[in-house]
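Lecture 7 notes: from sequence to structure.
We start with the chain below.
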Amino acid sequence: MIPLTPRLLEARPLADYRVWLRFADGTEGEADLAGELWGDMFMPLRDPEEFRRLRIDPELQTLVWPNGADLAPEHLYSLVRRS
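Predicted structure tokens for the same chain:
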């Protein structure tokens, strides 16, 4: 059963807009975010240097970037589970 809001514990940027993620329930793996980087907030993240600036927001428990872009932890969890 998927928790209502999966708690993201660790994230590391990889090559080609991929990121390695680890969740509190032990689920971990890679998510390819290339298909997520469209629209005004996400287009700047097409720059690999900007993409690599990702971090985990301690309150939201998801990936965020300095420009304000973020991705829902539930979505990230589903991407990792699919891989």
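Points to note: The radius of gyration is 12 Å. The mean pLDDT is 93.
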